[in-house]
Amino acid sequence: MRKLTTLLIAAIICVVLVLYMFFFQVSFDERAVITTFAKAERPVYAEDGVTIVEANSLIIEPGIRPKLPWPIQKVYRYPTKVQLLEQELSQLQTADENSIVLKTYVTWRISDPYQFFVALQNVEQAKDRIGTQMQDLKGEFSNYRFDQMVNTDLDALALDEIESTITELLRQRIIDLDYGIDIEQVGIRRILFPEATTEKVFERMRSTRQRLAASAEQEGENQATAIRSEAERVKGQILSFANAEAERIKAEGIREGTKNYSLFAENPELAIFLSKVDTLKKTLPGSTLILDANAMQFMDLLITPESDASQEGGDE
């Protein structure tokens, strides 16, 4: 029984080895190039240069495929997904002679697996070539000022322009080298400052804040002066209107007084009666008192003796 189990396990191992030697699998996110005696046959394209008429050594469909064992045939698999290459920190100088430390990245993908195999064969070598080209292009950062890379004003930043410019330059270089690679994007991952640059940045920030504070203070003083001027103007208008209205009311009172004086001069008894009624209103506020007109004679009692004496003296 033990011998049978051993034979069964050995048979399974042999089958797996045979399958591994004579078959290979290509995933849905891969393309493969199969070589025969280390040589690969170029695929045949249609007139548009994109459509593949005969794949030959290029495998573009996923699935399990047969092959001859090594060293007769060998399979090179290449991913179709976008890949990321991050570079080390490097110190550069800007156009206004400030030092900065940049960490950049490149996203790329294999667009032509056959040409990639012919030019580079493996992904690691591709990363080395892309990194070398990217290192040569870092001098483009020196065409921009420090404030175009670091600024609190988003409109003054030129990072998008810098990234787009270097992306196009790197893309064109890779096309000229015919690596079978497409460059998707070059970006800035991080910006750092050496100590000397940091001190300059802080000093510039302080100067900027002081300038902004002075500008805000001046603006406040200008607004306060304008508000005071407007208040004085409105005050003058209100006083002018109030004085004119007071003069009008005064003139109206004089006219009314003149008319009443003429009326009372014609009928002095009516004037005396109205004066007595007005006196009652002032001496009895909030009261209602109904009197006969003849009963108003008691008001004569309010006349002081001094007044009577003066009248008698006058009569004599």
How is this structure best summarized?
The chain is an alpha+beta fold and 316 residues long.
Protein described:
InterPro entries: Band_7, Band_7/SPFH_dom_sf, HflC. It is a single-pass membrane protein. Pfam families: Band_7. The protein is of the alpha+beta class. It has 3 domains: 77 residues, no CATH class; 111 residues, 2-Layer Sandwich (Tetrahydropterin Synthase, Chain A); 39 residues, no CATH class. Helix content is 51%, strand content 19%. The protein contains 7 helices and 11 strands. Strands 8, 9, 10 and 11 form a 4-stranded antiparallel beta sheet that branches. Strands 5-2-7 form a 3-stranded antiparallel beta sheet, covered by helices on one side. Strand 9 and strand 10 form a beta hairpin. The longest helix has 72 residues. The protein starts with a helix and ends with a helix.
Number of strands: 11
Give the helix level as a range of percent: 40-55%
Number of domains: 3
CA radius of gyration: 53 Å
Order of helices and strands: HEEEEEEEEEEHHHEHHH
Mean pLDDT level = 80
Structural class: alpha+beta
Amount of beta strand: 15-25%
Notable traits:
19% strand, peptidase activity, Band_7/SPFH_dom_sf, three-stranded antiparallel β-sheet, alpha+beta, 7 helices, transmembrane helix, four-stranded antiparallel β-sheet, 316 residues, HflC, single chain, hydrolase, disordered C terminus
Task: Describe the protein's topology.
Elements: H1 2-22, E1 23-26, E2 30-36, E3 44-45, E4 52-54, E5 58-59, E6 63-66, E7 73-79, E8 83-86, E9 90-93, E10 99-110, H2 113-119, H3 123-137, H4 159-177, E11 181-192, H5 195-266, H6 268-283, H7 305-315
Antiparallel strand pairs: 1-6, 2-5, 2-7, 3-4, 8-10, 9-10, 10-11
Family: Belongs to the band 7/mec-2 family. HflC subfamily.
Organism: Algisphaera agarilytica
GO molecular function: peptidase activity
